[in-house]
Structure formats: structure tokens, C-alpha cells
Amino acid sequence: MPEPDLLTADEAAKLLRIGRRTFDGHVARGDIAYIAVGLGLQRVRKRFDPEDIARFREQQRRVERPPKATPSRRRTKKAPVVEIIDFKTLLKDLRAERKAAREA
């Protein structure tokens, strides 16, 4: 039985319709299996089986689910309580207290 034609990295990336750098990243992470060809020890020649590429494609298949509905924050109809401070009157009262303390 003849072996199927092995693909180069460029051919496999084109088949998946992704860039070469993205493809190399998947290979480095071990997502895509390769076959080492040749006797080189420094830089391995990598070839890819079309069945491995098809298997990777199936593993990447995802189904989007809509996010779960989160309860909205409860809104109150009351306005926040705001205190208004009259600083001039406050300063006037403070000075009067100090004056009374000195005189006593």
C-alpha cells in the first residue's frame, strides 16, 4: 500500500488557511503531529500527514453558546441623601467657641 503524499509546512498551512507562523506555533505546542524526514540532527525536516491535518481541524471545531443571562442590578428609586455643609457658619461657630474658651 503506497504512503500518502506528505505535506510541507507551507502546504499544510495553506490547507488549514492559516499563516505559517501560526502553523509553526501549533506544531511547537504539539497540536499538530509531524514526521521527521532525513538524517539531520540540528534542524529536523518536518513533513505532515494529511490525516493529521484533518484530525487537528476536527479538534479545533467549536460551538458558540450564548452567554448566561446575568441578573441586572437592582435599582432603587430613592435619590442619594446629600448633606449640605455651610462652611462659613461652621468657621464662625468654631471661632466663637475658641474665643469663649480663652475668656473662661
Walk me through the topology.
Elements: H1 9-16, H2 20-29, E1 35-37, E2 45-47, H3 50-59, H4 87-103
Antiparallel strand pairs: 1-2
Helix pairs in contact: 1-2
Protein described:
- The chain is built from four helices and two strands; from the N terminus they run ααββαα.
- The chain is mainly alpha-helical and 104 residues long.
- It has a domain at 9-59.
- It has a two-stranded antiparallel sheet with strand order 1-2.
Concise summary:
With 104 residues, the chain is mostly helical.
What structural category arises from helix and sheet content? mainly alpha
Uncertain residue segments: none
Sum up the overall morphology in one term. Answer: elongated
**N-to-C order of helices and strands:** HHEEHH
Number of helices: 4
State the helical fraction: 40-55%
The pLDDT mean sits at: 88
Gap from first CA to last CA:
115 Å
The total beta strand count reads: 2
Question: Approximately what portion of the residues adopt beta-strand conformation?
Answer: 5-15%
Q: If you compute it from the alpha carbons, what radius of gyration comes out, rounded to the nearest whole angstrom?
A: 37 Å
Strand order of the largest sheet: 1-2
Question: Largest sheet, if any?
Answer: 2 strands, antiparallel
For the structure shown, list the relevant keywords.
about 100 residues, two-stranded antiparallel sheet, elongated
